[in-house]
Specification:
alpha/beta; six-stranded parallel β-sheet; six-stranded mixed β-sheet; 28 helices; globular; binds zinc ion
């Protein structure tokens, strides 16, 4: 396989695709080159690869002869990777083409195409099911045939199936099991042209969730920068653009937020070279040909600029913020963003849990992001204490800003008063506080967008690294109300601050709260170090990890500067690397394992939990602390997420090393190139 992933965010990936004519950084945009008619040197604008049409070359005697003699790269004057399409677009336009599948695949190989395409049938959206099924059979048949015909050429195999999602998935399953290198997702142009972005999302998701993760996907015909970010976030890697020239010839300027018509412009709303050096009047005054050329330049620059913006967003971990911005530029894109809610479970598996940038709340759609879904799911997996104290949000990290509380509270009390939170709050001097020293009280901050944040987690990503407006919208309040009502249901005793009720419009009667009381004497809150580190480990690695890691005598070392927990050693081992269990990373508040921690986790969790299993060949390299390449992996925990701390073992489950995963469990299993785990330390 020839594709590897460097960075991930949402379902998007920044990757490298290797072809005979060079490496391509993905996501990538391929300008469509019309053979014999190209007007712009597209490589000057950042094109690493281009796509051209083998059928148009084939049916023109002059072009065909030249291509056969000099190769397609010379024919279109482009030295980088060239993808060719097979004529299926012409087939969809004219119903018939004068070439067989076998002939066009052979021809593509002969003219030196890097990635060729079989003659699939692009079934339009919303046709009768019988037709979609019949077309699909032929598409799959021709894909199989293309494998027999090709020699060394890399091959595209197009996912079809119209708007029947089960057909798309079935097609992806079948093609994915065969030896293709790239998978275009076909026949979405009619959906894009009619702004049916919601259906585009459904078609993409039905396809990518059934395609191998290790192959790039090309969203065919999606050439408008408006949709790039969304499509990338769903797992598309390649785009082709004939749009830059078609829009230019129609006097239209593409922008990431939409399209401008030149005849309506008094100002050039862009800062590219063309727009900064021409006025709309000047452009309108030009001859058609010269004007189209300039507008095509603008369209290319904007399109490539958007691709670079997307790649940077993936590297930064801010792709969700980007798509939330982009999807606000058209109501139907907003529709598409909103139905991502239906794919939360899948998206959560691909979205890295730890990112370089903070979570920005940009509106109710942010509540559907995988980070929120993941947080609430992980909370559920940690057994609850008996009693809960719910507090309103403060500045972050919460524990530093709500160290002391007073004011009006409400509570339920099913147990006896002697042991109740209410009693502890009302008579704080009676025992030696801080309050959570009483082991069965869970202190939770209620906030947007994560709803419930146990105080132990108040420095963990993204619970500390997020910003939302202080003026809550109705959807956010409603979400918090629902989550909170479910959460407190099982507690023996709930005490809630009046400010929580007010902030989220909570109804006392729905919460089954009755007792009202006023705390006049300030109560000191806090989290004990051991409680904090056990809770974080359970949250990060799964329930039980905390006790396993920090069992027995340990010593917690804090940063002198910030006072935050830094290292956890076996008792008496401070500064001794051999006795270091784990380090709490300052940037995101989660654990980085040390050797002793890896050993303990390995002992506690059964095989293959948290593990990446490598073959014998790679064992010595792993022991030396060298990073693990995907091709050496023979098994792994499918629930691993990208950036998780993982254990590296051999087939006998002997611990060899540990490190940080680059990919998620499904990707590790599927990929055969590139790094799977960045090893921190071997030496076992
Ligand atoms: Zn411009």
């Amino acid at each position: 396989m020839t594709f590897e992933i460097k960075y991930k965010d949402a379902r998007g990936r920044v990757g490298i695709l290797k072809t005979p004519h060079g490496r391509i950084k993905t996501p990538a945009l391929m300008p469509v080159i019309h053979p014999g008619k190209q007007i712009l040197p597209v490589d000057d604008y950042g094109a690493d690869l281009v796509i051209t049409n083998a059928y148009l070359i084939y049916k023109n005697d002059l072009l065909r002869e030249k291509a056969l003699e000099e190769g397609v790269h010379n024919l279109i004057d482009f030295s980088g990777p060239v993808i060719t399409d097979s004529g299926s677009y012409q087939l969809s336009l004219y119903g018939d083409v004068q070439v067989s599948n076998q002939m066009i695949v052979e021809f593509q190989e002969k003219i030196g195409t890097d990635i060729g395409t079989s003659l699939d049938i692009p079934t339009p959206p919303f046709v009768k099911r019988e037709r979609a099924e019949k077309d699909l059979e032929i598409t799959i048949q021709r894909a199989k045939e293309s494998l027999e015909v090709r020699d060394k050429m890399m091959l595209n195999s197009v996912v079809q199936g119209s708007t029947y999602l089960d057909l798309r998935s079935r097609c992806a399953d079948i093609l994915g099991s065969m030896d293709f290198q790239v998978h275009p997702i076909g026949a979405v142009v009619p959906l894009l042209e009619s702004y049916r972005y919601r259906e585009v999302v459904e078609v993409i998701m039905a396809s990518v969730t059934h395609l191998p993760d290790s192959r790039p996907r090309h969203l065919m015909g999606a050439g408008h920068p408006m949709v790039f970010a969304l499509a990338v976030a769903l797992g598309c890697d390649l785009f082709d653009s004939a749009a830059y020239i078609l829009y230019a010839e129609d006097d239209r300027l593409m922008m990431p937020n939409g399209t401008y018509k030149l005849d309506k412009l008094q100002e050039m709303p862009c800062y590219c070279e063309v727009c900064s050096s021409h006025t709309p009047d000047e452009l309108r005054g030009m001859a058609k040909k010269g004007r189209s050329l300039l507008l095509a330049q603008h369209n290319l620059e904007v399109s490539f600029g958007e691709i670079r913006t997307i790649r940077q967003a993936i590297i930064d971990g801010s792709l969700w913020e980007l798509i939330e911005q982009r999807c606000r530029s058209h109501p139907y894109l907003l529709d598409a963003l909103r139905i991502l809610k239906n794919y939360q479970e899948d998206l959560e598996k691909y979205d890295p849990p730890y990112k370089r940038s903070a979570f920005f709340y940009s509106g109710p759609e942010s509540l559907n992001r995988p980070e929120v879904y993941r947080h609430l799911k992980r909370l559920q997996q940690i057994p609850k204490k008996n009693k809960v104290l719910l507090l309103p949000p403060s500045d972050k990290p919460y524990s530093q800003h709500i160290a002391a509380i007073s004011g009006k509270f409400y509570g339920t009390k099913k147990g006896n008063f002697e042991n109740s939170i209410i009693k502890k709050l009302l008579e704080p001097s009676e025992i030696n506080l801080p309050l959570p020293a009483i082991k069965d009280i869970q202190i939770v901050v209620v906030d947007i967008p994560f709803a419930l944040i146990p105080l132990e987690l108040d420095q963990v990503y993204p619970l500390a690294q997020n910003e939302s407006p202080t003026n809550y919208d109705e959807d956010a309040k409603e979400m918090v109300r629902k989550v909170l009502q479910n959460y407190i249901y099982n507690f023996e005793e709930t005490v809630i601050s009046e400010n929580v009720l007010k902030s989220f419009d909570l109804d006392l009667s729905n919460l089954d709260l009755e007792k009202e009381f006023q705390i006049t004497e300030t109560v000191i809150l806090g989290v004990e170090d051991l409680d904090r580190i056990v809770y974080i480990a359970d949250y990060q690695f799964g329930y039980g990890a905390g006790r396993a890691l920090f069992n027995g005598p340990i010593k917690v070392v804090k940063s002198r500067k910030t006072g935050k927990i830094r290292h956890i050693y076996l008792d008496g081992g401070e500064g001794d690397v051999e006795k270091l269990i784990a380090t709490l990373r300052a940037s995101d508040g989660v654990f980085v394992l040390a050797s002793e921690g890896a050993r303990r986790l390995h002992q506690y969790f059964p095989y293959p939990r948290n593990r990446v299993v490598i073959n014998q060949e790679a064992e010595p390299f792993a022991r030396k602390g060298k990073s693990i390449f995907a091709k050496f992996v023979i098994n792994c925990d499918i629930d691993i997420r990208a950036k998780d701390e993982v254990l590296i073992v051999n087939e006998d489950d002997q611990l060899l090393a540990f490190g940080k995963s680059v990919l998620n469990g499904m990707e590790i299993t599927d990929f055969n190139t590139g790094q799977a785990v960045k090893t921190r330390k071997g030496g076992f």
